[in-house]
Design goal:
InterPro entries: AAA+_ATPase, ABC_AA/LPS_Transport, ABC_transporter-like_ATP-bd, ABC_transporter-like_CS, P-loop_NTPase
Protein name: ATP-binding cassette domain-containing protein
Number of strands: 12
Organism: Feifania hominis
Number of helices: 9
Bound molecules: adenosine-5'-triphosphate
Domain ABC transporter: 2-233
CATH superfamily of the domain at 2-83 and 150-228: P-loop containing nucleotide triphosphate hydrolases
GO molecular function: ATP binding; ATP hydrolysis activity
Structural class: alpha/beta
CATH architecture of the domain at 2-83 and 150-228: 3-Layer(aba) Sandwich
Largest sheet: 6 strands, mixed
Length: 244
């Protein structure tokens, strides 16, 4: 279980981006975080992953205060974060990256299974370098595969739908459903997509650096949809970019 207590973060240029967030992310559930663009979702995810340091407040993982731990120490404790815009690693192949995430050499079949879950034809990709030659959607899917390889206690996916084609997106929904079934930690997905929100157990809405609404999907989703789809910032009646 992850607990955020009175978490705040101010940008170096000034301006408070995360404003006193209190949130509990339970184990065994898929928690979706949504809200308008610029609301503070990615910043919150980076605070959880240890990529940013809060000005004040605490982050507890299974009761342990991890606020002062850096990104590597948090990763060692099982916190894993898939970027909205993944980083490219010149010189590393897809196989290297997935094996690094898994912490072990993997048989060809396991690598293939993992990559095919995110819609990549594995044999074509295993020995490709993770550099600029990969498309945005390909690199995004490879990064999602690395999080799958990690078997972490807390996995945070930042807008996994971004840049992903419809076929792979449908696959991805199945992957999250499957992860949700086998969870022994927590799964957090930041998303604007109604199809992802509709498989979540809990939904948290963040706007202007604060939690605007949080609760069970059955309670939160209807009011979100009534406000204008999964995207509160979109015009009324819009589905917030849903694929449906
Ligand atoms: N390092 C930074 N310096 C200045 N402003 C920043 C910094 N990082 C984030 N911000 C600002 O903080 C706000 C929240 O950004 P964040 O990326 O967390 O939003 P988001 O909810 O994830 O948005 P989106 O839905 O568009 O991905 C934005 O206005 C952004 O410009």
């Amino acid at each position: 279980m992850l607990e955020l207590q009175q978490l705040t973060w101010t940008a170096p240029e000034g301006g408070q981006i995360v404003r006193g967030v209190n949130l509990t992310i339970p184990d065994g559930k898929l928690t979706a975080i949504t809200g308008p663009n610029g609301g503070g979702k990615t910043t919150l995810a980076k605070l959880i992953a240890g990529l940013l340091t809060p000005d004040s407040g605490k982050i507890l993982l299974d009761g342990e205060d991890i606020t002062a731990l850096d990104v590597t120490e948090r990763a060692q404790r099982g916190v894993s974060y898939a970027f909205q815009q993944p980083v490219r690693f010149k010189g590393l192949t897809v196989r290297d990256l997935v094996e690094l995430a898994a912490g072990d050499k993997l048989p060809e079949q396991s690598l293939c299974d993992m990559l095919s879950k995110v819609g990549l034809c594995a044999r074509e990709y295993i020995d490709r370098e993770v550099n600029a030659s990969l498309s945005g959607g390909e690199i995004k899917r490879i990064e999602i595969a690395t999080v799958l390889a990690r078997h972490t206690r807390l996995s945070v996916f930042d807008e996994p739908e971004a840049g992903i084609d419809l076929w792979s997106f449908t696959n991805l929904i199945d992957v999250f459903r499957e992860m949700r079934q086998k969870l022994d930690g927590s799964l957090v997905v930041i998303s604007h997509q109604e199809r992802i929100l509709s498989i979540a157990d809990e939904i948290v809405v963040i706007a202007d650096g604060r939690i605007q609404n949080a609760g069970a999907r059955e309670e939160v989703l209807p009011s979100l949809l009534a406000e204008g789809g999964a995207c509160p910032a979109c015009p009324k009646g819009s589905k917030g970019g849903s694929y449906e």
